[in-house]
Design brief:
With about 350 residues, this protein is mostly helical. About 35% of the residues lie in helices and about 5% in strands. It has helices spanning about 50-65, 100-110, 135-145, 160-175, 180-185, 190-210, 225-230, 235-240, 255-265, 275-285; strands spanning about 40-45, 70-75, 120-125, 130. It has a four-stranded mixed sheet with strand order 2-1-3-4, with helices on both faces. Strand 1, helix 1 and strand 2 (about 70-75) form a beta-alpha-beta unit. It is globular.
Length: about 350
């Protein structure tokens, strides 16, 4: 998710195009970009409102990287300098000592294109941004950070299934992850209808696949499930109404609603989701779409904790591994953000 400020009122007023990640350095085991995998060296800055950042939050939890990679959580409401640390004492990130994420961007490069986005990986010693490449970041957490994974961490990007995972993720990205934004920020009827139709066409195609198997690829949770989950978990709360993706609600699709509840109730998924941050961000920041800034009371969240019966399809959520333990006390989602 990009920067806020003057751009907020522009949402829905000009054609939407997702900018490529400008900072695409990688933190790798062999340090080929100059950034070695190293415990305690980097800080992951996220917003719990943002689906792209939420991928990294979930991956970090599942892989048990909490002690090796600290996490800063931005306020879901941006100001004209974008993501800010007003949730922290004195409005500063306690590790980086900055008030706005843009300060880490500025230390890396001035006059950078594309705005200030999360997730952002920041080098703690220098205070510089390393990468905001959300597509590559989670793949690297799964494959390059293995020396720091917890015992029993799942293989989220298994070598034998990568081609299929990549294909599924590309389709889901185009039609669903990014499709809801293209629908929500459309400036004309035709543009909106094409994007909205694409969202539901892809969800309709995924439904029979997930009716016969518990997870998208193979019989364990993979990166593909993480990427679909972060859009589906926001669907009824913000995309159905705010982004006009309203052919049906997720709760009306028996298969997808059970699938996303299954993941939500899996350690590492639902315990990272803050519905309060999600709703306030979309409805209060996108003033071009919702000029009153009123945040809806609904939807009712109690259904998220109801039985899903997906275990009847078999599948082993963590493969040969084990579930992560509870989140650190400082990272628990406040009660108002949970069902």
């Amino acid at each position: 998710m990009g920067s806020a400020g003057d751009g907020n009122s522009a949402y829905g007023q000009k054609a939407f195009k997702r900018s490529k990640s400008h900072f695409a350095d990688r933190v790798t085991a062999d340090a080929r970009d100059g950034w070695p995998v190293e415990a305690g060296r980097y800080r992951l800055v996220v917003s719990r409102a943002c689906p792209w950042a939420s991928r990294a939050v979930i991956s970090r939890r599942l892989l048990g990287l909490e002690d090796a990679l600290s996490m800063g959580i931005a306020d879901p409401i941006q100001d004209d300098r974008s993501w800010r640390f007003t949730l922290d004492p004195d409005g500063r990130d306690p590790v980086l000592g900055i008030r706005h994420l843009s300060e880490a961007y500025d230390r890396r490069e001035s006059d950078y294109p594309g705005g200030v986005s999360v997730p952002a990986l920041v080098d703690v010693p220098s205070g510089k941004l390393v990468t905001n490449d959300y597509q590559q970041l989670t793949l690297d957490l799964a494959t390059e950070w293995t020396a720091l994974h917890r015992e029993g961490a799942p293989d989220l990007y298994p070598t034998a299934l990568r081609d299929e995972i990549d294909t599924v993720m590309a389709e889901v990205y185009e039609d669903v992850n990014n499709g809801v934004y293209r629908a929500g920020f459309a400036t004309g009827q035709e543009e909106y209808e094409e994007a909205c139709a694409g969202v539901f066409r892809r969800l309709d195609l995924l439904t029979p696949r997930l009716a016969r198997q518990r997870y998208l690829v193979g019989d364990t949770i993979t990166e593909a499930d993480i990427r679909l989950f972060t859009t589906l978990v926001r669907f009824d709360a913000v995309y159905h109404g705010h982004f006009k993706c309203n052919r049906w609600k997720l709760t009306e699709n028996e298969v997808l609603w059970a699938y996303v509840r299954d993941l939500y109730q899996t350690p590492g998924f639902g315990d990272t989701v803050d519905f309060d941050h999600i709703k306030r961000h979309y409805h209060q920041v996108h003033s071009g779409i919702n000029p009153t800034g009123i945040v809806p009371l609904g939807p009712d969240l109690s259904g998220w904790l109801t039985p899903h019966h997906r275990e009847e399809l078999g599948g082993r959520p963590f493969g040969e591994g084990t579930p992560p333990g509870p989140p650190p006390a400082a990272e628990q989602v406040p009660e108002r953000g949970r069902p």
